[in-house]
Amino acid sequence: MKSRMRIYPYLLAAGVALASSACKSLETVSRTANTSVPDSFSNSGDTVNSGQLKWKEYFTDPYLQALIDTALNNNQELNIMLQEISITQNEIRTRKGEYLPFVGLKGGAGLDKKARYTPLGASEATTDIEPGRAMPEPVPDFLIGAYASWEVDIWSKLHNAKKSAVLNYLATVEGRNFMVTNLIAEIANSYYELLALDNQLEIVKQNIEIQGSALRIVRLQKQAAEVTELAVRKFEAEVLSTRSLQYDIQQQIIEAENRINFLVGRYPQPVARSSQPFSELIPDSIHTGLPAQLLQNRPDIRQAEMQLEAAKLDVKVARANFYPSLDLSAAVGLQAFNPSYLLTTPESMLYSLAGDLTAPLINRNAIKATYYSANSKQLQAVYEYERTILQAYTEVVNQLAKVDNLKKSYELKAQQVDALTRSINIANDLFRSARADYMEVLLTQRDALESRFELVETRMKQMNAFVNMYQALGGGWN
Can you give the pTM of this predicted structure? Predict the structure, then answer.
């Protein structure tokens, strides 16, 4: 044992020298992530960030709050992600156990018969345990002992692997937070779409009444020979078209409700919602804060950052595979051919202590490939991190411009709706006095209906921009 242990320092030195020369020959490509962002969003200079608000403070509709709260508990995709987090937690335990000593207990019993005309068989035949007592044949064997093994983490390979597992776990948590942000935004957008469809359905019903009233007038005028049958048929066709549109909207309402029901993890059922007129919903003012705050607010950016740090550690782990590894093993126990002799010490006692130093020398293609793959994954993580930052900034700028443009568009469309609504009464009066053609009345009604629909859709886009801005700023997960 002593001579064996004296050789280890020389083997270690030789292994380190060989591994060092091998590592120097490896082609390493590294790149530092560029995390710089502009000083502000479109020169806004706003320092208050709406993304730091909790979702219950940002979405004040109690019906919407109830839906979001239910989804955070029941959504299947979110629950699947929670199990993914549990899996990465167990990976940490696995990595931690690899650099701790492994200790176990062992017990066994056996029977051994040696051939007499062999050196070992002949020696057992001539061995006396006590005067007048020879070795039993066959020879029983009983063993009770403990053993331990430990890989000494000389190059911090195992510790780095454990740190990488921790970072991957934290990245998974951030992935779950990002999913929460997206889930809240998806529910809120679907909810406002549902309110918009309710409003459009009400507009259609009102338009059916207006058209029905005009149809009755046309029929009376036809009886008075003031208009032809063509005018009656045209008005009837318009009423039927609008009634058909009513059922299309009702189908869209059912699908919107079921989309929400799926997100909250329940079977199709009516969705309770606000009865407030959709036109009265006005998005609150949104504060974008500073672009640098995205690095902390956006879960996907933090996830990409942690994945990058884990990839760096994986490179170190892969590089350490070229260096020698030192494994220590030990065992202690009791062994005898008769159970009654197990406690007879020190004759029945056995123990061992060994150390093994191994280093790869020839045919290292596998560990080279692992190292190059880890290096490429690190570069990939750098680009992914930079892409996520750029995407986050672009999303905020896009939504900021969208909020401003939709506000201006809604104001103009509201004026358009007001003008076309007044033109319906004017067209009807002119038609009754035979100063306007029936086609002018139909076109005016159709234009008014389309403009009211567009006004509702613009308001829905405003509410979606209100939601998407909160999502782009990284709000909801906290």
Answer: 0.84
Confirm whether 177 is domain-assigned: yes
What distance in Å separates the CA atoms of residue 371 and residue 373, rounded to the nearest whole number?
5
Whether residue 163 is contained in a domain is answered as yes
Instruction: Tell whether 290 is covered by a domain.
Output: yes
Is residue 467, in this structure, part of any structural domain at all? yes
Q: How many structural domains does the chain have?
A: 1
* Predicted pLDDT at 15: 54
Q: pLDDT digit string (tens) for 165-223?
A: 999 999 999 999 999 999 999 999 999 999 999 999 998 998 888 888 878 877 887 88
Least Cα distance to 329 among 136, 151, 183 occurs for: 151
pLDDT in tens, 149-158: 998 888 888 9
Expressed as residue numbers, the domain containing 274 is 30-99+158-322+373-472
Which residue in 213, 181, 215, 222 sits closest to 71, CA to CA? Answer: 181
Which residues contact residue 178 at a Cβ distance below 8 angstroms, ignoring those fewer than 6 apart? 298, 299, 300, 303, 477
Contacts for 204-208 with beta carbons within 8 Å, 24 or more apart? 204/242, 204/245, 204/246, 204/249, 204/449, 205/246, 207/242, 207/445, 207/448, 207/449, 208/239, 208/242, 208/243, 208/246
Alpha helices in 268-364 (DSSP H): 294-297, 299-320
